[in-house]
Amino acid sequence: MEFRKVELWISSGIYVFVVYMNLLSTYDPTASYINHHLLPGLSSITIVYLSFLGINNIILPKYLPGQKWGNICLAGLAAVFMMTVVFTVSHHYFHFDQQPSVQDSFLHILPSVLLIAVLFFVYNILKRLVINLRAGSTKTIIQRSFPTFVVTFLVWFTVLLLFMVTNNRHFGPLWVSVVPFAYFIYLINLYWLLPEYERTHKNGLIYGVKACIAVVMVWMFFFLIWSEMLPAITLESYMAASFLLLMISGLLSWFSHKQNLDQWQLSVLQQELGKSSADLSFLRSQINPHFLFNILNTLYGTAMQEKAARTSQGIQKLGDMMRFMLYQNTLDFIPLEREVTYLRDYIHLQQLRIAGLDQINVQVSLPQNTGDDVIAPMLLIPFVENAFKHGISLKHRSWIHISLSCENGELDFDVYNSLNAKQGNDPEADAGGIGLENVRQRMDLLYPGKYQLNIRESKTEYFVHMTINLRPE
Asked: Nearest CA to 113 among 88, 73, 84?
């Protein structure tokens, strides 16, 4: 809705500008000029403007959400028909001295009407494409804006070719100079002036001074280009066009900046909600933790007295894991070394359970030194937990291969395991887990555009490969 309001203001501004340019360049207050030049020209401009408003602000918002293509096509054909009628009559009156027939006028204006219809169709397609590409919340502002820049350049270049073919000396020089001037001001305002305005606590004086300097410097550059092209319009017309497009670029940059702020705030809220949802199961475990640790210490002492080395090691590893879950998991990021230690402790506990079973092969490759990189806690354990839950069989041959490496902030993590049907007495058969969908959700929120997660599965094998760029941009 807000984008359509911006389109309304821009299209109305362009309409007023084109009418003003026609009046300024050839105005003659005679009856012949008004009847045979002014009114036909204004009629053609007005029917194009009204057709754009009708389809863009009434027809498409009403029928496009329900994909009622028949109604949209009928409205489009009606707009083309009205433009054809008005253009034909206008051409007939404009060239009254040549006395063209209605058929001649129709054949003369038909390519122009079809060109306008095609341009409007292409405009809506590109607009939808840009809106969809910009909507990705997991992308940075630059990544979302690059498609907009490409589409804008293609449209500008296409219209430039049209002006070159028709040798239009009125609007051609304006298109080469004023339009790039407005677009550069749009980019400067969006990516420098408005963000700086927010950072300086909305200091209007500083913003105004910087904006004036930027406008003057950019305008002088493109004014020199325009003056070298032997334009057919006056300096006053060029100034008016520059001012109008400057207002339009300012309005568009403000709208885009506001949209970027809203998307950033929404992303922050989603990240906080996702973090709360992902950590909820761990927060529930904080029920009287000191009591649990005291019980574990008691069991550990009892196992040592009974010389049960494996049992005491298991209790010690379990205590370390519980401390990690209670105290480290509440942090946003932890050293990668602690995450690897937690993986190593979990794997050690599982190996105690399957010790002595020769048909189970577990191979683990975890680094001893992980440097100073940090990672969000509990991102890797779900894949290892999933491997031991579904990859172990007490009767059939099975395997689990786990490897992790990290160089220059680039983490590579692989889990490869067999798949076996669970037995009814398997203690892991009904065990809950964090869930791989939960992990993917956290990855989208914490590492947008900085990770790859590939999962391949067959009837007998399951393979996970994940890479994460841990270094901040």
From this structure: 84
Task: Note the pLDDT tens digit of each residue in 91-139.
Answer: 888 877 777 788 888 888 888 888 788 878 877 777 776 666 555 544 5
Residue 27: phi, psi to the nearest 5?
-70, 135
Q: Which helix (H) or strand (E) holds 347?
A: helix 336-353
Contact at 8 Å (CB) between 419 and 432? no
Q: Are 249 and 189 in contact, with CB atoms under 8 Å apart? A: yes
Nearest to 368 by CA among 351, 350, 343, 386: 343
Integer Cα distance of 195 and 206 in angstroms: 12
- In the chain, the N- to C-terminal Cα span, in Å, equals 34
Distance CA 170, CA 56 (A): 28
Residue 214: name the closest of 181, 248, 174 by CA. Answer: 181
What region, left, alpha or beta, does residue 371 occupy, with left being phi > 0 and alpha being psi -120 to 50 degrees? left
Q: How far apart, in whole angstroms, are the C-alpha atoms of residue 18 and residue 22?
A: 6
Q: Which long-range contacts (CB under 8 A, 24 or more apart) does 354-359 make?
A: 354/392, 355/310, 357/394, 359/393, 359/395, 359/396, 359/397, 359/398
Up-side HSE of residue 377: CA atoms within 13 Å toward CB?
21
pTM recorded for the entire structure = 0.41
339 in Cβ contact with 380 (< 8 Å): yes
Find, among 261, 266, 277, 271, the residue nearest to 444 by Cα: 271
* Residue 121, helix vs strand vs coil: helix
Q: Which two tokens stand for residue 396?
A: 């059939």
